[in-house]
Amino acid sequence: MTMPAGTTLTDQFGRRIEYLRISVTDRCNFRCVYCMPEEGLAWLPKQDILSYEEITEIVGQLAPLGLRRLRITGGEPTIRPNLAALVRMLRDVPLIEDIALSTNGVRMTELAEPLVAAGLDRVNMSADSLRPDRIAAIARRNLPFDPIRSATAMERAGLAPIKINTVVMRGINDDEVEDFARLTLEHPWHVRFIELMPVGDMRSLTWEHVVPSEEILDRLSALGSLAADDGPARGIGPAKFYRVAGAPGTVGVITPMTHTYCGSCNRVRLTADGRLRTCLYGDHEVNLRDPLRAGADLVPLYVKALAEKPLEHHLLQMQVGGLRALSQVGG
Ligand code: SAM
Ligand code: SF4
Questions:
Q1: What atom of ligand 2 comes closest to residue 75's alpha carbon?
Q2: How far is CA 20 from the centre of its chain?
Q3: Is the pLDDT score of 91 beyond 60?
Q4: Is 4 within a domain?
Q5: Which candidate among 26, 95, 159, 164 keeps its CA 20 to 30 Å from the CA of 104?
Q6: Looking at residue 229, what is its pLDDT?
Q7: Is residue 3 part of a domain?
Q8: Ligand 2 near 31 CB (within 6 A)
Q9: What is the pTM of this model?
Q10: Is residue 69 part of a domain?
């Protein structure tokens, strides 16, 4: 089944789907309290994981249907060997305009330059604290990670815009909201505060740890008057941005718990084992890996999956633990 290049597929609700998030591994060098259990996760067997060639083949088949932007994620994508090779292969796929990475930043001091050389455009880095002891306590791994050093290395390598994502947890790191926001007064970085979501196995966290975005914005107003802002020029995402007068960077909030973005959702996801997920939170997924390995045309499967993309998620009605962790579905 061939589609003319330049086609943009819409789902059953008329949403244009042009953004694919690709998980390249379910593994991670961190065990963030809100994402993974500390021990005992069963990893996908190696033969189940898509090779870089297979990922590139899937993107190559789907790009003519409207995919223009890719984000490489995980798990932690930078622990998969030679990630730059994948970036280079995806860069060569016709019609792909933008390649981004989501990372915990640990390896970015060494990887920023090779990834840029391979064609990476931009990066979102997670950082939940600026204090080494707290970083280790939240990540439950004691690896050398200095968010400012990693962000600076990324900026020097030419990645732009640089977005820093902070999951805000009451009583754990919510007293650092102002410190993170202050970074935007000195650097052209975009700090986005994310409401904690009740996904995966979060035994130590409860709904009381969720800090609503209104409360985060209240705290931010301590820095000065905040004006609504368009945010970084490149990259459209589900964040609302604000700028302190004169600041080179912006602050933003992502509010999966108190507001939904489903009406403007433009994305689908590919899990590390080759399943297409049309909604982050539902159970619905389509196996692309086995048909790909059998030499089948993926286009009809993709068209059908988009036709069934749900209208919205039902996070607010769910209980903690009722959903797969973001590390497993390519958050
Ligand atoms: N390892 C990379 C990282 O940490 O950025 C990429 C994968 S991670 C699953 C993607 C994003 O999901 C991160 O920004 C992380 O903070 C966020 N995330 C994971 N679990 C979350 C949760 N329960 N609530 C809110 N955000 C979550
Ligand atoms: Fe790893 Fe990212 Fe999940 Fe933290 S949020 S455990 S860094 S995948």
A1: 8
A2: 11
A3: yes
A4: no
A5: 95
A6: 86
A7: no
A8: yes
A9: 0.91
A10: yes
Does the residue 238 lie in any domain? yes
Q: Find the CATH number of the domain harbouring 229.
A: 3.20.20.70
pLDDT the model gives residue 86 = 98
Q: What is the pLDDT of residue 311?
A: 61
Count: domains in the chain: 1
Mean pLDDT of the chain: 87
Ligand 1 centroid to Cα of residue 3, in Å, is: 34
Given this model, what pLDDT does residue 237 score?
Answer: 60
Domain span including residue 71: 19-328
Q: Is 274 in the pocket of ligand 2 (CB under 6 A)?
A: no
Pocket residue to mutate for ligand 1, from 326, 327, 329, most atoms within 8 A of Cβ: 326
Residues 78, 326, 93: CA angle, nearest 5 degrees: 50
pLDDT for 322 beyond 50: no
